[in-house]
Amino acid sequence: MTSRRARASSGTPALDLLTGSGASFRVHEFEHDRGAASFGMEAAEVLGVAPERVFKTLVAQTDRAADKGLVVAAVPVDKQLDLKALARELGCKRAALADPAVAERTTGYLVGGISPLGQKRALRTVVDESALSCETVLVSGGRRGLDVELAPADLLRLTDASAASIAR
């Protein structure tokens, strides 16, 4: 499933990581509409993919000292991150969405294009367990209008993520 175009012109750290990983993946590019209300839902609609297979990448702040309390959560675009469930999974008392500027600075990606792959600083990552019921899932490839499709097992392996029920 690896795209030749991805090998030839990777362009983002996420695609660089995928290209060197040996994982099978497919690149999906589309013209991003600056007026779109939801980057993830836009991707699902434009690409004709069920929203439960397209995962948004969110950065959360917890009360843990490790990694300044920052963690990555990936949930389907048609769901919301359950912050209490995320905190429970991490053994924390609470979690909240991180400030967008902190998320951008930490990951190296712009909001709307934050990928769980190839981040500037590797953070603990939790993927909603619903991903495991899909043959493939789509996540941001590192910029708006660029998604990558890969097997959930590869997503978990490449991000050293755990899977848990963190969406509602």
Question: What do these coordinates show?
Answer:
The protein has helices at residues 4-8, 13-21, 39-47, 83-90, 100-107, 152-159, and strands spanning 25-29, 55-62, 70-76, 95-97, 124-128, 137-143, 146-150, 162-164. It is an alpha/beta fold. The chain has one domain: YbaK/aminoacyl-tRNA synthetase-associated domain (YbaK protein, Alpha-Beta Complex), CATH 3.90.960.10. Strands 4-2-3-5-8 form a five-stranded mixed sheet. Strands 1-7-6 form a three-stranded antiparallel sheet, with helices on both faces. Strand 6 and strand 7 form a beta hairpin. It is globular and about 40 Å long. It starts with a helix and ends with a strand. Mean pLDDT is 88; it is low at 2-9. Keywords: Hydrolase, Lyase, Protein biosynthesis. Residues 42-158 form the YbaK/aminoacyl-tRNA synthetase-associated domain. This is Cys-tRNA(Pro)/Cys-tRNA(Cys) deacylase. Belongs to the prolyl-tRNA editing family. YbaK/EbsC subfamily.
List the helices and strands and how they pair.
Elements: H1 4-8, H2 13-21, E1 25-29, H3 39-47, E2 55-62, E3 70-76, H4 83-90, E4 95-97, H5 100-107, E5 124-128, E6 137-143, E7 146-150, H6 152-159, E8 162-164
Parallel strand pairs: 3-5, 5-8
Antiparallel strand pairs: 1-7, 2-3, 2-4, 6-7
> How much helical structure, as a percent, in the residues?
25-40%
How does the overall form come out from the CA principal axes? globular
In total, the number of strands is 8
Query: Ends: how far apart?
Result: 31 Å
Largest sheet, described in full? 5 strands, mixed
| SS class | alpha/beta
Question: Looking across the biggest beta sheet, what order are the strands in?
Answer: 4-2-3-5-8
Beta strand %: 25-35%
**Second rung of CATH, namely the architecture:** Alpha-Beta Complex
Order of SSEs: HHEHEEHEHEEEHE
Q: Helix tally? A: 6
CATH superfamily heading? YbaK/aminoacyl-tRNA synthetase-associated domain
* Count of discrete domains: 1
Radius of gyration (CA) equals 15 Å
Q: Which class in CATH terms?
A: Alpha Beta
Enzyme class: lyase
Protein name: Cys-tRNA(Pro)/Cys-tRNA(Cys) deacylase
Keywords: Hydrolase, Lyase, Protein biosynthesis
GO molecular function: aminoacyl-tRNA deacylase activity; lyase activity
